[in-house]
Structures are given as structure tokens and as C-alpha cells.
């Protein structure tokens, strides 16, 4: 039965990979390009006009003294003439396509999403923030458990040998979710760099945690042998993104590769372990495989707000709760075992 389930899950992942949709680039549409050019000259798209379009995209006044330059807070948020023209032309063009019975298309590699109070991807931001809250709640509940409810050693250290790793994991995952929320709010080069870098750190450390816990690695030299090559890959990738080429396609491949390897590690342990909470580990593994499909799927946003990435973010919320539930059970299990050995 377990073997059949594995094959079913594998087929699901394969189907997710082969059913990924392709879409043409809407930003190459002559009508869209003409709209943007005209907007930057006139400051208007139809009846919608932008006051700050009397400034160039770099914030300098087209004509007029220095005190007429665009306010700093607008430049910081990157609400410039070019961005507003691109967004308004994109939405106008998509309305035309809808009336003509044409399917939505991508602009600059992304689906057209409706903004809410200047937030580019409001649904993804909301789910990322909620996931961050769940992660924080899980970390705090774990902290209270190991330091105030379980037995401690005479030096006030926990018996749970993976305690330090889980604290680092909590910080890295919350940091990644924070920058993910920021990037979904406003996708510019700086926020992309911070989002990609923090996601790479999280992926690398999650793999380290998976290997050390799954294989019960306690020897320091063995830990270094596991950790060093993963950290080297993570550091190299971050340096490449930040100082050579901010390549989104390469970043996705690296994250998917590390994530797939991590799932293989968790999957082997889930299949072979006799852990008292093995059902939670297996549920986490199976759910993670299915959730991966949402990350690989690519479809136009529903009602202009909900796309595949937003659904993937939503699916991560119950996974975060399940993960910390297993971690708490694992802490109780390992503390009980080590207490018996110490007596």
C-alpha cells in the first residue's frame, strides 16, 4: 500500500511538471508599447492621468527647478511615471483582450495582477504574512515546550539535541517570509535580491536540517561534511545573483533542486522510521509533494488577484502548522529517550 502511494505521488509530481502552461509576453505587444510611450509623454491613459508624469522615471523634473522634483517617499516606493504607465496600459490592454475573447498574457514574465493600495500582489502578501504568523506561533510554542515544560540538563541546556538547529530554522524561515511579503508588495531589483537571497538561505538550511535529523548525525566532523558543501552552493548562488546576474530562471532551478533533494531525504526517513509521530511526518511529506504542484502550475490569475503562486502560499500555511506540531512531538520523544539513557 505504501509503495503504491509513493508511485501515485510521483506521478502527481510528473504531471505537475508536464502540464505547466506557457504564455507569450504581453510587453512585446505593439499596442501595449505604444500605450506606454504615449502615457510617458502625456501622463494619461484614457481618462486616467498621473500627476508625477511630469517627472522622468529617475525622479528628475523634465522642466522646472529642483524643488519641483518628485518627493523622496514616492521615489522610495518606486511609484514613478513609467511604473504607473506600464500598469495602467497593461490593465487597459487586458480589458481589450477580454472583450475580444482572447486569453490573458504575461507582461515581463508575470501575469497581470490587480493592485490594491499600491500593493502588486495583495493575496500573496496576505498569505505570506499569515504564514509568517503561523511560523512565529509554532516557534514560540516550541520554545515554551523545551525550556519550561520538558526536563533540562543541569547546565540548563535542553536534552533535545536539535534545539539549536530549529531556532536557526525559525529565524531563517520568518526572514524569508518577511522579504517575500515585501517583494510581493513591490517588486523592484532590491526587493528581488533580498527575496531570492533569503529564500536560498532557507532552502539550504532546510536541507541541512533534514539530513542531520533524518540520519541522526551527532558527530561534529560528520555535520561539517554535510553542511560545508550545502553552504558552499548557497553562498555561490547568492553571490552570483547579487554581483553577476539576477537570473530568476536559474534561481527557480536552484530552489527546486534543493527542495526536491530535501523532500527525498524526508521521504526516506518517513518511510523507514518508527517514530511515534511518523504519521505527521508522512502527512507533511505527502502534502509537500502535492503543494509543489501549485508552485509549478502556471495559470492566469482568477478575478485578477489569485494566481498559482498565491495558492502555493496559502497551501504553505497548514504545512507550517503541521511541521511545528511534529517538531514538538519530536522534542518530547527525544527528550524522553535521552532521559531514560541518563538514568
From TrEMBL:
GO terms for biological process: GPI anchor biosynthetic process. The chain crosses the membrane at residues 132-150, 162-182, 194-212, 224-242, 254-272. The keyword Ribonucleoprotein does not apply. Residues 1-23 form the signal peptide. It is found in: Golgi apparatus membrane. It is a multi-pass membrane protein. Pfam families: Per1 (PF04080). GO terms for molecular function: hydrolase activity, acting on ester bonds. One of its GO terms (cellular component) is endoplasmic reticulum membrane. Keywords: Golgi apparatus, GPI-anchor biosynthesis, Membrane, Signal, Transmembrane, Transmembrane helix. Involved in the lipid remodeling steps of GPI-anchor maturation. This is Post-GPI attachment to proteins factor 3.
Amino acid at each position: 500500500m505504501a509503495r503504491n502511494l509513493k508511485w501515485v505521488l510521483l506521478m502527481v509530481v510528473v504531471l505537475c511538471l508536464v502540464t505547466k502552461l506557457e504564455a507569450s509576453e504581453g510587453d512585446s505587444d505593439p499596442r501595449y508599447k505604444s500605450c506606454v510611450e504615449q502615457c510617458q509623454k502625456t501622463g494619461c491613459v484614457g481618462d486616467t492621468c498621473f500627476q508625477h508624469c511630469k517627472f522622468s522615471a529617475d525622479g528628475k523634473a523634465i522642466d522646472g527647478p529642483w524643488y519641483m522634483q518628485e518627493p523622496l517617499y514616492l521615489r522610495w516606493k518606486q511609484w514613478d511615471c513609467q511604473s504607473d504607465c506600464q500598469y495602467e496600459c497593461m490593465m487597459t490592454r487586458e480589458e481589450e483582450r477580454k472583450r475580444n475573447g482572447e486569453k490573458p498574457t504575461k507582461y515581463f514574465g508575470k501575469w497581470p495582477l490587480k493592485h490594491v493600495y499600491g500593493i502588486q500582489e495583495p493575496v500573496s502578501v496576505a498569505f505570506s504574512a499569515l504564514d509568517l504568523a503561523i511560523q512565529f506561533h509554532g516557534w514560540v510554542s516550541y520554545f515554551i515546550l523545551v525550556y519550561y515544560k520538558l526536563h533540562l540538563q543541569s547546565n540548563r541546556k535542553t536534552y533535545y539535541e536539535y534545539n539549536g538547529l530549529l531556532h536557526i530554522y525559525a529565524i531563517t524561515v520568518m526572514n524569508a517570509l518577511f522579504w517575500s511579503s515585501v517583494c510581493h508588495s513591490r517588486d523592484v531589483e532590491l526587493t528581488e535580491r533580498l527575496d531570492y537571497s533569503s529564500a536560498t538561505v532557507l532552502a539550504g538550511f532546510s536541507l541541512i536540517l533534514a539530513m542531520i535529523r533524518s540520519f541522526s548525525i551527532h558527530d561534529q566532523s560528520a555535520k561539517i561534511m554535510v553542511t560545508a558543501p550545502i553552504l558552499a552552493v548557497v553562498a555561490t548562488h547568492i553571490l552570483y545573483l547579487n554581483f553577476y546576474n539576477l537570473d530568476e530562471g536559474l534561481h527557480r532551478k536552484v530552489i527546486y533542486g534543493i527542495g526536491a533533494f530535501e523532500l527525498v531525504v524526508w521521504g526516506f526517513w518517513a518511510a523507514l522510521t518508527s517514530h511515534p509521530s511518523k504519521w505527521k511526518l508522512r502527512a507533511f511529506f505527502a502534502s509537500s509533494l502535492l503543494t509543489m504542484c501549485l508552485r509549478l502550475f502556471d495559470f492566469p490569475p482568477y478575478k485578477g488577484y489569485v494566481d498559482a503562486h498565491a495558492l502555493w502560499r496559502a497551501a504553505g500555511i497548514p504545512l507550517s502548522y503541521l511541521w511545528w506540531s511534529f517538531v514538538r512531538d519530536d522534542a518530547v520523544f527525544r527528550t524522553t529517550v535521552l532521559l531514560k539513557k541518563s538514568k
